Predict the 3D structure of the following.
Amino acid sequence: MQKLQIVGALNVTPDSFYDGGKYLDVAAAVERGAVMIADGADVIEIGGQSSVSAPLVPAHEELQRVIPVLTALHQKFPRQQFSVDTMSAVVAEESIKNGATIINDVSAGRRDPRLLSVAADAGCSLVLMYSKDLPPTDKADRQYDDVIAHIKDFLSERVAAAVASGISKDKIILDPGLGYFVSADPQYSFQILARLREFVSLEFPIFLSPSRKSFLAGPQKLPPEDRLPATIAASVIAILNGASYIRTHDVKEVRRGCEVVIELPE
C-alpha cells in the first residue's frame, strides 16, 4: 500500500468556499496550522488565492497573506512539511525561500509559466492539477466524451512542459481535479474517483482534494458544513484507488478514515 500523506488545507483568504475569512489574522492561521499538525497533517498547505469564481489577487497581496503565516509556522515547526497553493512565480519563489518544499499550482503552469522554472531551480516538488479552464475557474457545466482520457492527455502535456523547464520527474505530483475544476456536473468527479488507477498508470504520485467539494452535496444539496461524512468516504475511495496525497480541511477525521485502508492486508 502506498504511503499516506494528509495535506491540511489552510486558506488565508476572505472568499474560499468553506473556510474563507476564518484565518486572515496571522495568529489565528498559525493556531489553526498547529491544530492540524497535532491532528496528524503530514503537510500544511497555505493558500492566499481562491480558485473558484474569485478575482485574481495581485502578487503583492497574495504575499502579504501567505508569507507571514508560512514564516511563523515554519519557525514554530521546523521539521514540518509546508506547501503553498499558488499560480504566481513570485509567490512560489518567496514561499520556497521561507520554508515551502511543495508548490501546488492549480493552473499547472499555465497562469504564470515562469513558475515551472522557479520550481526547477529550487528543486522543490510541484503539483500539476487539471482544470477545465484557466483558474480561477468558473462553475460551468462542462461535458466530456471520456473525462479520464481528456484529463490524462492534459496532464501528460503539462508534465512534458514541466520536464522541459528542468523539473525532475521525481518532483512531479499529479492532481486530476474534482468539483468545479472539472465540471458542475458531479458525475465526472465520481468517474475520476472510480477510475483513479488510470492516472496511477502515468507513474507519478496522485494528489486529490475532495474536501467538502460541490459534487459531494448529494440530492439534498447539502452545504459545505454538512459534507464531512461524504468527504471521508471520497477520501477513502481515493486511497483505495491509488492516491498518495489527500488534501483536506478535516485532518483528524480524514486521517482516521484513510488509515483503515492503510491497515488492510495486501
Summary: The chain has one domain: 5-262. Residues 186 and 215 are 5 Å apart (CA to CA).
